[in-house]
Hints:
The protein has about 190 residues and is an alpha+beta fold. It has 5 helices and 7 strands. It has a domain of about 130 residues: Aminopeptidase. The two termini are about 25 Å apart.
Amino acid sequence: MPFSFDEPGRNQLPDSGWDGVFRWAHEDRALGKTRTVLSALEITLLPSHRGRGASSVVLRAMADYARRLGYRNLFAPVRPTAKHLEPFTPIGAYAHRVGADGLPSDPWLRVHVRAGGQIVKVAPTSMVIAGTIADWTQWTGITFNSSGQLTIPGALVPVHISMEQDHGVYVEPNIWVHHPLVSCPANSD
């Protein structure tokens, strides 16, 4: 998704990550602004294709396509694949955790960094999903009986459930990764 960046009022990526880049791209298109960078949105692999190097192939293809379109920078509001195993760990601490090799401990962040990406910042409110208790029950298959911060399988952080107000709110953090797109000669594989 193309958007304008590095201009007055837009010299920082949005804290609202995924949701924010959608708003910026829509606004830029409506106003006829020149879009200077590209944002990745999502790469999802079938479970049978995970752990076999396919994610780096898809990421490389996305960067190559952006380069062919003339973009010099690709940003991605990355949803770390193993964060759901630690829903109460603050995203900032998680984002900067590295292994003995100096690479991020999260598998998906590691793929991005190996591909030349640089972790820029945390997007603490990247995706906000709100709904009634009935909505959350339908979406998750879980029956909610109490209010509070409740963990949901696959969610990166707990969902705030309010039985009294009949709503649940999930505020998913992501991590902005910047991929500088250096020019490459054609057929340089």
